[in-house]
Structure formats: structure tokens, C-alpha cells
Amino acid sequence: MTTIWELDFYSRPVLDEANKKRWEVLICESPLNVRTQPDSLFSYSEFCLSTEVNSVWLRQALERAIVQASKPPDKIRFFRRQMNNMITKACEDAGVPVYPSRRTLRLVQWIERRMQDYYPTLPNYQAGGNPSVNLPPADPQPLPDALIGEKWAIVTLEVAAFADMPEWEMAFGEAFPLDMAELTPETPIPGLIIFSSRALPLAAWISGLELAFLKFNRESPARLVLETGANDAWILANLPTPQLQAEGDRFEAAKQRANQLHFVAVQSDPNSDSFAGFWLMQELNLA
User: Fold this and answer.
1) Any idea where the domains of the chain sit in the sequence?
2) pTM of the predicted model as reported, rounded to 2 decimal places
3) Least buried of 44, 71, 120, 155, by fewest C-beta within 10 Å?
């Protein structure tokens, strides 16, 4: 079974003896299906002196985490683009594949909890947020011609319907426990289903991306855009008519009501009982 870690290495709102901000590495294992108990997964934290902030220290901390976990992860995700060079070098030197990604739900929630409940309890706490990691919006790229779907539909599934997701027949996919989003079982989760005669190749291609979220972009030309990696974007569907744009608006409204939870699925046709791919996502605020 694939093991994915999420990693952050950055300054925290706590000062050291030299009146410099303390740095900290946070590492946690990603929950990959709806039945995973996040609290049972591996996590690791370690503070770093401001004078030791470099890729060598980070590599050594990563190696200490691997010893504690008893096995290395198959890959590591990180969202903080300011630290791209240092994190990439440290992970590569430790022999672990690393990818910039906005699919770091557990890590972001952990940082938020520490900001609220842990750092304020430490000596020399200094209130204040971290700088934004948002990048300018990417110019969405079209899908490869061979992978464009023939049809698509915006649908909804209630939270309770995902309880059986591990039993669904699918070739590719990724999810996380829905209780991380703090929703009721009756909450409708919106999603986009793409129907394609080349469903399996399309799902395999999507699976190779670091999926972040799906968004309706109303600015002309209106379209549904899949955000991936640190700042990449792909056009999944054009919405040229007022009727289709109204569907896009309803999709975004449903996302808001579902705490930004949504999904993208790929099927060969509307009558299929299986999925070539199914990905649960949540649009995160990484500011």
C-alpha cells in the first residue's frame, strides 16, 4: 500500500534566545481513504535553530522521522513554494521522491491547530500569521487531445454515500475521511463526472497529477478548471452558454455549503457500474 507524507518546514510564531523566530519541521502521513483514522497515522515534529536552517538539517530530520516510522514514504508532498529548493534537495538527498502539492489536507489542519492551541502556550510566543503562499493564477491548459471526454455531468452525492467507497470498483483514485471536513451525513457533495471512451487512459493521466481542486472560472471564457501541483491548471470543460454557466454557479454554491469538499470522477459511459477514476478533493486556504 502506498504511503504518502506531507511536509512543512518554516518559521513559527515563537522566538528563540536570540530573538529570532524558531523554525520547525512538521511531517504527517496522508489519509488515503474514507475509513482511515487520521489520529492513527504517523506524525513527526521537531524544532530547528534559526542558525541551522538548511537542507542538511532538514534531510537529517527527515531521516530521523523515517527511523521512527520504520519505513520511508513512497513520496512526500509540500505546499510551501517559498521552500521549494530546500525541501526538494533535502528529500532527494534522503532518497524520497518529492512533489509540490496543494493536496495536504491533514498537514494544513495540523498547522491550524498548532497555531491556535500549541504555539500560544510556548515561551516567547509572538502572535502573527505566516506569509501567504498563494501564487498568481495559472493560465489553464487544454487537456491532451486524446484524453478529452465526450460528455460530462455535474452531480451530487451525500456524505453518507461515501461510506462504501473502499468497495467501489475503480482503477485509480484517492480520498480521505469525510469527518475531517466536519459535515453531516446528509450534506450533498458536488462533483464532476467525465464520460470518455478512453476513460482508463484519462484516469491514469489524471492520477499522475497532484490534484488540488476543481473550480468554476466564470471569467470569459467560462470553464471548469482542475487545479493541480503548486500552480498548474487544466481545462476540463468549457461552459459557453448561460445555462451551463448556471450549472457552474450551482457547483460552486454546493462546494461552499460542503466546506469546499467535492470530487472528480471518470467513467466510460453513464450506465457504467464502475469508475476508471474517482478523486475526493477539498479546496484549501493556503494563505
Assistant:
1) 4-121, 141-282
2) 0.93
3) 71
